[in-house]
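Data deposition worksheet. Section B asks for the primary sequence of the deposited chain exactly as it was used as input, without tags or linkers unless they were present during the calculation. Section C holds the resulting structure in C-alpha cell form. Section D is free text for depositor observations; keep each observation to a single sentence. Incomplete worksheets are returned to the depositor.
Section A, Depositor: J.P.
Section B:
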Amino acid sequence: MDKLTEIFGSAREVTDQVIVTDLLVTVKTAIINTAKAINETANEQLRSDLKRKLHAHIEQHERVFSYMMEHGYYYPQTPEQQIHVLNETAETVLTLNKD
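Section C:
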C-alpha cells in the first residue's frame, strides 16, 4: 500500500472497490488494444502470440468481474444499482487528493 500512497499522494480513501474498478477498466482496455493489434499485424507468429495474450486478458477480466460481483461492486443486471455504485466510486476517487 505504500506504493499506492506514493502514487496517489494522500490516498486516505483508496478502497478495494476503487482499485478493482480501475483494474477492470485496464483489463477491458487491454482486450480492445490487443484485438486491434491482432487485426493489424501481418506476421503470423506475432498474431498467434497476441491471440494467446488476448485469451489471457479475457480470463483475467472474468476473474476481476467475478470478484466484483461477489463483493457487491458490480451489478450488470440492475442498471440503477450499478449507476449508484459507479457514482459512489467516482466520489471516492474525486476525494483522493483533497485536503
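Section D:
The chain is about 75% helix and 0% strand.
Helices lie at 2-8, 16-40, 44-70, 79-94.
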